[in-house]
Amino acid sequence: MKYGGILRIGFKLLVNDKPKFTALLIGITFSVFLMMMMTAMFAGILNHSYSTVTNIGADMWIMDRSVNTPTGPIPMPDYVLDAVRSMDEVSYAVPLFIGGALIKLQSGNFQSATVVGLDDNSLFGRPDLEQGSILNIYADNTVLAVDDAEFPKLENAKIGTSFELNDHRCTIVGIARVAVNGLNGVPTLYTTYNRAIEYIPSTRFTLSYVLVQPKSAAAVAGIKQKVAKLGYVALTKAEFNKSIADYYTYRTGVGTNILLMVVIAFIVGLSISGQTFYTFILENLEKFGALKAIGAKGRELIYMILFMATFTALTGYGLGVGFVTLMIMIARSRLPNYAATITYWNLGLAFGMVVLIAGISSYIGVRKVLKIEPFDIFRG
Residue 226 has what pLDDT? Predict the structure, then answer.
């Protein structure tokens, strides 16, 4: 390696000064930990906010233009379903109802819940069952309960457990599982569409969504145009998820607060590492001057400083990611509804921030080292 010798010298200078090296690692590790933890929490929130879309699994969703989140639907008239079913581009379309209800448990306690009403004929979007038979949902006054992080709020209900749902007697006939837990912190119940609109008071319009299966990918554009003429909007699964993400990112305080914490973490890491690295350079100026005196070129010193800053930054990055991963694993084992999750984009964001910290720290050190003259060092 052309610069192997000078890089080895830089490595020894760095690690032999244990207090400074430790301070650099702590600053960058803490910065990465904060950035990763905040963005992991945000990614988890978004992942849970998609839960209804993910769990139902429809390719296209038709809804009112003002809908922001899946659990906050705006009812539509029934003719929308008939109009969509008549479109040549549509393979099939089914209704979906989503609403909130108040449950009176056997203990007498009250508990809010989300009720999902599936199409009576096809039960499209039904969850997988852990216990019970899906056909039992057609019996009188029956529901499926989802076994997720909020399930204990039903007071450890099981098949055969009865409760009051808006003054209607309901019995659990199945325990279901879903891919993603919800975000609202309430249990989820599934039943048939007609039973749901009977149980839950609503306006004169009861249709929350129309779930559509296009005949082909090319048919999506035509469906969107025809639905727009009806005064509503048709979104693919990916588009609906993006709309939800945009809402939480830009129209609530969640995105702003997360961004603020990331900026604070970056400033903390930059200030600690930059100041410590600058102090390290000052304390070793005579060594850099000696290297210049024995023939080291300015380019070689630049590479050495870049190597030192990069090595420290990447080590701190690895430690920070490791601590975040450990923290999330511990939290998930003890808190079933903990939402944080590590994704490629928050790993990339933290890595980019660390590279920026290393670059700024290197720039500070390079400027100082290039200005020194061997004559000044030896004269002192």
Answer: 95
